[in-house]
Amino acid sequence: MTELGRILKVYNSVLHVAAKDAVILCKLRGRVKKGHGDAVLIPGDVVAFERISPKEGVIERINARTNLLRRPCVANLTQIVITAAAASPNPHPLVISRFLVLAELSGVKKIILCVNKMDLCQGKQEDLLVAYEVVGYPVLRVSAKQRTGLDALRQRLAGEITVFAGPSGAGKSSLLNALDSSLALATGAVSERIGRGRHTTRRAELLPFAGGYVVDTPGFTRQELTGLAPEELAACFPEFSRHTGCRFTPCSHSHEPGCAVKAAVAAEELSRERYDAYIALLTELRSKRK
Prior knowledge:
Blueprint: E1 2-11, E2 14-18, E3 23-28, H1 30-35, E4 46-53, E5 56-62, E6 68-69, E7 74-75, E8 79-85, H2 93-106, E9 110-116, H3 130-135, E10 139-141, H4 150-157, E11 161-165, H5 172-179, E12 205-209, E13 212-216, H6 260-266, H7 272-289
Parallel strand pairs: 3-5, 8-9, 8-11, 9-10, 11-13
Antiparallel strand pairs: 1-2, 1-4, 2-3, 4-5, 6-7, 12-13
Helix pairs in contact: 2-7
């Protein structure tokens, strides 16, 4: 009898699939491999499988994905929590905007910013990442160490399939451990020499949490915007769409005269920090075309 399940993790070509009553260790049937060519199954994929024993099965079919986050590679999410640190390492506007662009590209509708290590914050806590809050991204300010702000985050996670993505050292694993100590995820310190976190999570894995799943992922400081054309970048900055009336169509919002977005930045109606990140990413994408 064929059953539906969700892939929790992939390890040594074995697919760990959550069924109604257990986690089933599955392999791909030969014809499924052939029919999908070089397609790779990833955590979050929904599959139809047939049991060959109480704990083993063979995957018969792969359901179409509703969305896909390419790096870290996870499918069928309901929300993304981009995690940064208030300090150690300090939040970098370009890194945060890069993660936000990748989140916008994924097709996942709910995108949240979570600032961990608020116990290290210098200055007014409510000012940290306020520019992104103005854009419309919810910003949660928490401390895994002091266990503050966790209730608001826990409410956001209930019943959702949530990936925690962000740069190394932001404390994603520590945050998940603070939410649920039974997860027992490995954690590491930030390197004093390079000012970045060490990767403690080696692979993406869905972990049951509050009627849904959370996904701890390897941290990255550098994220490549593969498959994105320069002219598509502006759509990944949702606040730009509120400022129409550019003299030229299409407008790259970089060098053209009469640009409504540039005028909004000059009038402080748009964040200079966000706009500078946009220009840096646009320059990067253009350089790859040469």
